[in-house]
Every structure is written in C-alpha cells, then in structure tokens.
Specification:
155 residues; alpha+beta; 5-stranded antiparallel beta sheet; 4-stranded antiparallel beta sheet; 14% helix
C-alpha cells in the first residue's frame, strides 16, 4: 500500500512540476484593421445629376490590399446602431464603393441610373467603417484547366 501511495505521490509531483505559469497561450495578433470615419454632409461632391461621391483618403490602403488583401466598407445611418455593407440601397438611393491605393470613394446614385433624376446628398452625418483585411494569396493559375475537374454544361 505504501508503494502505491508513494508511486501516486511521485506521479503527482512530476505532473505538477511540469506545469509552468509561462505556458499560457498568447492570443494571435489580429492582422486586420478597421477605420471609422464620419461622412459630413458638406463632403459630398456632385459628379452628375444622378451621382454624388465622397472621397476618403486612407494612406493605409496600400498596394498590398489592391493585389492581395481585402477591403470592405459598411455605412451606418443610425449613429452606429446598425451597419449596411456596401453595395446597398438606402432611402431610395444606391450606395456603392470604389477603392484604389490611398483612397476610398463612396458613391450615391439613382438606383435606375436615370440622369434625369437629381439625387441629393445626405443632410446628416453618416458613419463609414472601412475594414482592411490581410489574406493568404493563392495562385490558382491553371486550376480550371485541370483534367481532374469536370464541369457540367448548364442548359
């Protein structure tokens, strides 16, 4: 009995001494970045009767995001209670986004793109959330030419 007790105590001692306080797993660093910007009513510029734009300079939007990363934009019309991911239609106006290195442009246009219809810029602040996402690049060159893939013809 003493041998069993000694064996159990030895195993417990070895088990507890193997644990170390610095074995804690560190959280993975989040490589994504979100920017929250207020779109002031005075910042909208008319480009056509049915098209207005708001330019947002964003120096963090680099060539990386053009070639590999991701860019997502959402708008809040209710003081950040909810967000609508672009493109969206809100209050009978179509919102879309275009981006390039260093610049995000949000457009509002008539949903049917009728230049005879004059749209007006928002009269109150809108909150924009711009999310820059890092991604892994997968070169899929030739993937669809693979003899292993069989595509069905849709009729």
């Amino acid at each position: 009995m003493k041998k069993h007790l000694l064996l159990i105590c030895s195993l417990l001692l070895i088990g507890f001494s193997a644990c170390d306080d610095d074995d804690n797993v560190q959280p993975i660093e989040n490589p994504n970045t979100a920017f929250v910007v207020t779109l002031d009513p005075d910042g909208w510029v008319r480009e056509a009767n049915s098209l207005i734009a708001f330019d947002i300079p964003l120096q963090d939007l680099t060539e990386y995001y053009m070639l590999q990363g991701g860019v997502a934009v959402a708008l809040s019309f209710d003081n950040e209670q909810t967000y609508d991911v672009l493109p969206t239609t809100f209050a009978a106006q179509a919102y879309s986004v275009n981006y390039s290195i260093g610049m995000v442009t949000i457009y509002i246009e008539d949903p049917i793109a009728d230049d005879d219809i004059r749209i007006e810029a928002p009269s109150s602040d809108i909150t924009a959330k711009i999310i820059l996402t890092t991604t892994d690049y997968l070169d899929y060159q030739g993937l669809f030419d693979s003899p292993d893939l069989q595509f069905k013809e849709l009729k």
